[in-house]
Write a structure and sequence with these properties.
The protein is of the alpha+beta class. 46% of the residues lie in helices and 16% in strands. Strands 14-33-32-31-15-27-30-29-28 form a nine-stranded mixed β-sheet, sandwiched between helices. A nine-stranded antiparallel β-sheet has the order 17-16-26-25-24-23-22-21-20, sandwiched between helices.
């Protein structure tokens, strides 16, 4: 509070020319006309009790991102379960089991269905409970709320209501949408960070109404009341229309007074505000969508397989019922032992049609084993276990935050392995919103030896490529001169400098915001440089041209700065480290301490601030006009190089060529650049301009901004270039490497950000989504007014032409290495996403190597995501960390939230949560790859084993006159899916690995097996179903042929039905378990126990079941001990049938590995023969082959550089060859 009181003496609004304008409409235009539909909201300030009952009762401030609540859980969860075709079939079968025609008891049909559905619903409830806990963490946050009599106390967010007066302190989030009443500053301004809403890192300046500014203390609200009439809740973040009725006056409100939920108060001790919109009425929640129910592509495809199996089921049931009707009509009258004259309608020779229809129901239930009821529950169990492995992966644990990866839903595990396009937020996702001053160019001379992260990553990759055996360069057996030429070319990219810059031996304690290293400028050494006067001016521009406030850190004795943007803060830290410390700001001046002077003593210099022309995204520059201690008036300017260079005078371009070259190098290395310039002014010239400027500033009307910009532009001309700065927008750890690996895995990356275009492009370079030589396609709307239909139509046609021309340019490009980047802003995107243009836009975007959408709203992020998802038909993944990313996270096939230091809205809406972007590499390339293959193989195997088992029932029924008789004991059939084959298939889904995790990362191209769907296409599915058909034929007919009339026992007796059925079932148990053993690539002791233990458990069950009383075991009584075990034919048949069933698969796999091996087959062979250890050259060569051809990432950047160097080398070699002797 004390700090706020001190600051209250400083009126900061005078710093701003274009933003934070004093509202003047109340004196001129009057209040907004608030009437009609869309403007019905009334807020009674400081009277929240009026909003607890109708008609003024509005949504509470409670928010929820859960799918279900106590009331909707049962109906919605049951609906979700019976969206699955198989569950719907088994529900019908369970109902039919209550009729007399059922071949099984009702309990045997209803119990498994109830178990499967119940388990799945329990899993859904558990996952939704976790979302509920996350919601409660947000709803339970506390803010200070006026309780009455001028006293404020803490209250949970969820209990805040419309009309409450809320006090928010520095670095706290706003709990609802508020009207700013006053702040700790005397002039009622405050600074707001909206990174969670629009991705912008620059602070926004908000200002209270003049009439409410005096209320700066808690006691001032004791008797405060007023009425706000405003617009209804809507998703527009940048508009607001309303009036405040206070003290018998009406004051208009606009967006500059509105503080939005989930934005954060910065650089301001405290503010007071009145709650306007709460909960789902707030603008950030209006931009969100309800949690969708997502199903993976494999699960949706599984429904089609179920349709096929159901069709087969119906066909063989119809065949069975027709056969039964024919037998009943023509043969049953001759079967005297069936008593045809004394029977029911189910077996009536006189009514064969009715008998056949009844038998159809029997057959539908009997052959139901074709459709695996345990498939869904097995998949649920497997996915939960897979999710637990993701949660416990130590390689995705972030030590800084203590956060682990979190699979918030396990329904989409396999979808992680099929991603085609990643749509990413920028701020907080790719970057950590920290700027580091790294390099600069002063008077045409480059300073700064330390390398950026992009340079380091590219250098490491280049070092690998240069040493790679088999590469064009390393394998070139040319002369020493040619080798030396190559080394000279390598020197051009300063590999040595890059590597040595990482040497930690001489590294000082890191300074936040300052990573500059160059002794020529440090410790006053700049005074020895040739252009020391220009360097002095450069440092003064850094220290004076800004709007920051200094704060003394009493512990360290140094100053820190509260700046509007991280860039500005980095410049001030840099100026301080260079010896130009900004330490004081008054109403009309800034004071800096220059530590390195000619006298050798520190000197304090005061610069009078005459005018400040602040930065806007349209102007792309900032200027300050100051009077120095000698009375000289100077304009100091910093801004985008393209803007500054256009405003240089003829004699101010001395360093333009060299500075431009340095700027290009900095941009290539992913650095954010600004140009610095100045202009000395005469007194008379300044006074004349200042008169015009004050007229424009005090004017009232719609053209005020245009007048100000015009007058400012007159002054910001005839500049003299001083130099340029290069700061590194610190990427989150490992981001360039992660993007590069994902690109090698064949994934496309789109960046959707609320940041301005220049910032987004800079980050594109630092992430290696953009690079020098890549052709940028910038689609932008014309600057015409679009208020009239004709103007809008013209703008739309212009955008359509730009897209058409760009698409044509991409298609006509003949250079195979050419890469295009599409950059588009939110205004243009509004038109591009319209129905008649969106597919044309998507076609262009898909053809480009990278896509960057900037200045996009949360709604546009979601719409772009939907367009990519529906337009390409491929799997999309959206990743973000803020509330502005919730829409796209929910819209994408997979939503990933970053559980960083900001709000948890993105995590609460996500399907998976990770602590940093770099963990996405392991989540997709390792876990996604594994989960996809595991689930795909598991489902294929499930259908195989159920077809192999289920069709034997049909064959036997046809063999026995379509009698409806099962060849197996009921307990055998019950245990088949529950015990004897369930655990091996679960172990396949949980533990199977085609290659280890480190190999997945070394061979990222393996990931493409998922997007190409190699393991769950119709060829493979039908192949497994054909394998099941083949196995069923072998099992049934071999058993019948061998055992039909052969002596089974030592006494010469033939096998009865129970012996044949048990032998046949034993063959099935052996065949399907051996099949899964052949399918597995990776064995653990658990899999051995489950596979071979399942076979052992069958014999154990048969032994124990045979020991039970014949009243229960029936024909199986002592069957194993007395009949099967002593009979050699039982063991021989089992062995023979098992071998014949699995032989085709074994032959197929051997042939594929030998003649048409897949990538993982080759890697498995290399690992098996330990060639990765014994033959490093071969291993490295195979790794290089495993890269998907990509045009983004630092590998693509290195490849482009190597191609460039090869071209230079070839030119030198050709010169050498043709040189006259």
């Amino acid at each position: 509070m004390a700090r706020g009181k001190i600051r209250a003496k400083l009126r900061r609004s005078h710093l701003y020319t274009f933003s934070c304008l004093r509202p003047s409409t109340s004196e001129t235009d009057g209040p907004h006309p608030i009437q009609g539909p869309g403007y019905s909201r009334t807020v009674c300030c400081n009277q929240p009790r009026l909003h607890r009952k109708k008609p003024l009762k509005y949504n509470s401030n409670y928010i929820s991102t859960t799918k279900y609540n106590v009331i909707t859980f049962l109906p919605k969860a049951i609906f979700e379960q019976f969206r699955r075709v198989a569950n719907l079939y088994f529900l019908l079968a369970a109902i039919l089991s209550l009729t007399p025609v059922a071949p099984f008891s009702p309990v045997s049909m209803i119990a498994p269905l109830a178990f499967v559905v119940g388990l799945s619903m329990a899993k859904e409830a558990l996952e939704d409970w976790r979302r509920f806990i996350q919601d409660m963490k947000v709803n339970s946050r506390k803010s200070k709320v006026h309780r009455g009599d001028g006293a404020f106390g803490n209250r949970q967010w969820q209990k805040i209501v419309v009309g409450d007066i809320v006090k928010v302190e520095k670095d706290q989030f706003f709990p609802a949408d508020l009207l700013l009443l006053s702040s700790s500053y005397e002039d009622g301004i405050c600074y707001v960070e909206t990174m969670n809403l629009d991705g912008e890192t620059n602070l926004k300046v908000k200002r209270a109404l003049e009439v409410t500014i005096p209320m700066g203390e808690d006691e001032d609200f004791k008797n405060f009341n007023g009425t706000i009439k405003c617009e209804d809740p809507n998703p527009s973040l940048y508009t607001f229309v309303g009036n405040l009725e206070y003290d018998r006056q009406v004051y208009p409100l606009d967006p500059s007074q509105i503080l939005l939920r989930d934005s954060k108060l910065r650089n301001t001790a405290y503010v007071y505000g009145v709650v306007i919109f709460t909960g789902f009425d707030s603008k950030v929640m209006q931009n969100s969508t309800k949690s969708p129910s997502k199903r993976s592509r494999i699960e949706r495809k599984m429904d089609y397989i179920i349709y096929i199996l159901f069709t087969i089921l119906v066909i063989i049931s119809l065949m069975s019922s027709i056969g039964f009707a024919i037998k009943t009509k023509y043969q049953m009258p001759d079967w005297w032992y069936m008593q045809p004259n004394n029977t029911t309608k189910l077996y009536d020779p006189k009514q064969p049609g009715i008998s056949g229809l009844a038998h159809l129901i029997t057959a539908l239930i009997l052959y139901g084993y074709l459709i695996p009821i345990s498939l869904y529950v097995s998949i649920e169990v497997v996915k939960v276990l897979q999710a637990s492995f993701i949660n416990q992966d130590i390689h995705m644990y972030d030590e800084e935050t203590g956060n682990t990866a979190q699979a918030r839903t396990s329904n989409l595990n396999e979808e992680l392995g099929q991603v085609d396009t990643i749509l990413s937020d920028k701020t907080g996702t790719l970057t950590c919103n920290q700027m580091d001053y790294l390099k600069c160019s002063i008077a045409g001379k480059a300073y700064g030896t330390r390398s950026s992260e992009v340079e380091l990553a590219a250098a490491k990759q280049m070092a690998i490529d240069l040493n790679e055996p088999g590469s064009d360069i390393s394998s070139d057996s040319g002369t020493k001169n040619r080798r030396r030429s190559w080394e000279d070319e390598v020197a051009e990219i300063e590999l040595e400098t890059v590597i040595t810059s990482q040497d930690d031996r001489d590294r000082k304690t890191p300074i936040k915001g300052f990573s500059f290293e160059d002794t020529r400028l440090m410790n006053g050494n700049w005074m020895k440089e040739p252009n020391s006067d220009v360097i002095l001016l450069f440092f003064r521009i850094l220290a004076v041209c800004h709007t920051a406030i200094p704060e003394l850190n009493e512990e360290t004795g140094t100053y820190t700065y509260e700046a509007e943007s991280p860039d500005e803060g980095a410049f001030l830290v840099a100026a301080r480290e260079f010896g130009f410390e900004f330490f004081k700001r008054t109403q009309a001046s800034v004071v800096i301490c220059e530590k390195h002077t000619q006298s050798g003593q520190p000197v304090e210099r005061e610069f009078k601030i005459l005018n400040l022309l602040d930065f806007t995204s349209k102007r792309k520059r900032m200027s300050v006009i100051v009077r120095d201690e000698e009375g000289q008036i100077i304009l100091l300017c910093k801004g985008a190089d393209s803007i500054i260079f256009d405003r240089l005078s003829k004699n101010g371009r001395m360093y333009e060529e060299s500075t431009t070259r340095h700027l290009n190098e900095y941009g290539e290395n992913g650095l954010r650049t600004l140009a610095l310039a100045y202009r000395r002014l005469e007194e008379a010239e300044y006074n004349a301009w200042n008169d015009e400027f004050l007229k424009a500033k005090t004017s009232i009307g719609s053209n005020r901004d245009a007048m100000l910009e015009q007058v400012s532009d007159l002054m910001e001309r005839e500049l003299i270039l001083v130099g340029a700065t290069a700061v590194e927008d610190k990427l989150q750890k490992g981001v360039p490497q992660c993007i590069d690996k994902l690109a090698q895995a064949g994934l496309k990356l789109w960046v959707l950000t609320g940041d301005k275009m220049e910032t987004a492009i800079n980050i594109g370079f630092s992430c290696s989504l953009l690079r020098q030589g890549m052709k940028q396609i910038c689609i932008s709307a014309s600057q015409l007014e679009t208020n009239t239909p004709d103007a809008k139509k013209a703008v739309k046609e212009n955008i359509a032409n730009q897209i058409t021309n760009a698409a044509q340019m991409v298609k006509l490009e003949k250079d195979p290495h050419a890469a295009f980047a599409l950059i588009i802003d939110g205004k243009t995107l509004t038109y591009a996403l319209e129905e008649d243009m969106k597919l044309q836009f998507l076609g262009l975007a898909v053809d480009c190597a990278s896509v960057i959408c900037c200045r996009v709203s949360p709604k546009q992020k979601a719409l772009v995501t939907r367009l990519v998802k529906e337009g390409t038909g491929k799997t999309t993944l959206a990743i973000g960390d803020g509330a502005n990313d919730v829409g796209m996270i929910q819209e994408a096939d997979i939503g990933v939230g970053i559980s960083g230091v900001e709000g948890m809205q993105a995590v609460m809406a996500s399907d998976f949560a990770i602590a940093q972007f770099r963990f996405l590499e392991r989540l997709l390339v390792v876990h996604g790859h594994w989960c996809y293959k595991r689930i795909a193989q598991m489902i294929c195997y499930f259908f195989y084993k159920n077809i192999a088992f289920g069709l034997t029932l049909f064959y036997f029924e046809a063999f026995t006159g379509f009698s409806g008789q099962s060849v197996y004991d009921d307990w055998y059939m019950l245990l088949f899916n529950v015990l004897l084959t369930s655990l091996p298939v679960i172990s396949l889904g949980v533990f199977e690995q085609d290659v280890p995790s480190e190999v997945c990362l070394q061979f990222p191209a393996l990931y493409q097996q998922g997007p190409k769907n190699l393991f769950f296409d119709w060829y493979r599915i039908l192949g497994w179903m054909g394998n099941g058909l083949y196995s069923s034929l072998v099992i049934f007919f071999f058993n019948i042929i061998i055992l039909y009339d052969q002596a089974f026992c030592s006494g010469g007796q033939t096998a009865d039905m129970s012996a044949i059925g048990t032998t046949m079932f034993t063959c099935i148990v052996w065949a399907v378990n051996c099949q899964i053993a052949l399918t597995m690539s990776h064995f653990t002791w658990i899999q051995h126990v489950f596979v071979w233990g399942s076979i052992v458990s069958w014999y154990l069950f048969l032994f124990l079941y045979g020991m039970i009383s014949p009243m229960i075991s029936g024909d199986a009584y002592q069957l194993l001990v007395e009949a099967l075990a002593p009979a050699p034919i039982f063991w021989h048949t089992t062995l023979l049938v098992t071998i014949i069933c699995n032989l085709p698969y074994l032959v197929h796999m051997s042939g594929q590995r030998y003649f048409y091996p897949l990538d993982h087959h080759i890697i498995q062979e290399i690992k098996y023969y330990k060639k990765d250890v014994e033959d490093q050259h071969m291993w490295t060569r195979e790794r290089s082959k495993a890269r998907q051809e990509t045009k983004i990432g630092f590998t693509a950047r290195v490849d482009a550089k190597i191609r460039q160097l090869k071209g230079k080398l070839q030119k030198k070699q050709s010169t050498f060859h043709y040189k006259p002797s």
